[in-house]
């Protein structure tokens, strides 16, 4: 019988048949869960964009929604590359995170910056889930020798990391500070009162909830921050 050390080495290298079969099944299950999660994310990002207060946050969600559609298509390429039909499987984690985002909308005033701060937090929780899922999938793909799948999954992993950084940048740039200054929740039930970077729209104090010099919108390849910290 192989030593414990050999068994562990075989497990992580996937070099014995039983382990490889088990890891292959695990990999397919993970892919199905991610495929489900990304499709849910496309819908959720649209809802979050509709609910957001500022143009910056709304555009960030819309940009990532488009990027996520590409990630769904890329996952179909991953399935194809390993000779498995694309299929999904319910992921309770993403369902819970999307529910949390909907709760943020229910619990905040329409038109408030507090809502945008909450939506950014909810968005980052979703991104962190995706980063964990894709990171694990890349590792499994490499162990199983699926180099094309690993490359495709790694590409999406980098996009998700970049999205998380952009959300941090967005929060730090103005949302948190302005939300803290907000006198309670600013009531605004109409789109006409939406805080905006529109040249015709100003805030009650005459300023604009905008700082286009520091916000690039997430989903952009212009990565200008390095940390994962945030001030929310
Ligand atoms: Fe994604």
From TrEMBL:
<dbReference type="InterPro" id="IPR012347">
    <property type="entry name" value="Ferritin-like"/>
</dbReference>
<dbReference type="InterPro" id="IPR010287">
    <property type="entry name" value="DUF892_YciF-like"/>
</dbReference>
<dbReference type="InterPro" id="IPR047114">
    <property type="entry name" value="YciF"/>
</dbReference>
<feature type="compositionally biased region" description="Polar residues">
    <location>
        <begin position="196"/>
        <end position="232"/>
    </location>
</feature>
<dbReference type="Pfam" id="PF05974">
    <property type="entry name" value="DUF892"/>
</dbReference>
<feature type="region of interest" description="Disordered">
    <location>
        <begin position="178"/>
        <end position="232"/>
    </location>
</feature>
<dbReference type="InterPro" id="IPR009078">
    <property type="entry name" value="Ferritin-like_SF"/>
</dbReference>
<protein>
    <submittedName>
        <fullName>Ferritin-like domain-containing protein</fullName>
    </submittedName>
</protein>
């Amino acid at each position: 019988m192989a030593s414990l050390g050999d068994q562990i080495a075989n497990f992580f290298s996937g070099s014995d048949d039983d382990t490889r079969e088990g890891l292959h099944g695990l990999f397919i299950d993970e892919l199905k869960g991610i495929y489900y999660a990304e499709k849910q994310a496309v819908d959720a990002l649209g809802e979050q964009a509709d609910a957001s207060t500022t143009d910056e946050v709304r555009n960030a969600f819309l940009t990532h929604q488009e990027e996520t559609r590409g990630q769904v298509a890329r996952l179909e390429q991953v399935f194809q590359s390993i000779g498995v039909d694309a299929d999904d499987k319910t992921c309770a984690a993403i369902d819970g995170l999307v529910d949390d985002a909907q709760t943020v909308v229910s619990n905040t005033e329409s038109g408030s910056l507090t809502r945008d701060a909450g939506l950014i937090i909810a968005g980052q929780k979703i991104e962190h889930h995706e980063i964990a899922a894709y990171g694990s999938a890349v590792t499994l793909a490499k162990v199983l020798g699926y180099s094309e799948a690993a490359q495709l999954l790694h590409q999406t992993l980098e996009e998700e990391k970049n999205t998380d950084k952009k959300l941090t940048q967005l929060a730090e740039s103005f949302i948190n500070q302005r939300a803290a200054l907000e006198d309670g929740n600013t009531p605004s039930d109409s789109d006409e009162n939406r805080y905006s970077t529109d040249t015709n729209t100003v805030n009650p104090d005459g300023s604009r909830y905008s700082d286009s010099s520091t916000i690039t919108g997430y989903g952009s390849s212009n990565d200008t921050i390095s940390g994962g910290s945030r001030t929310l």
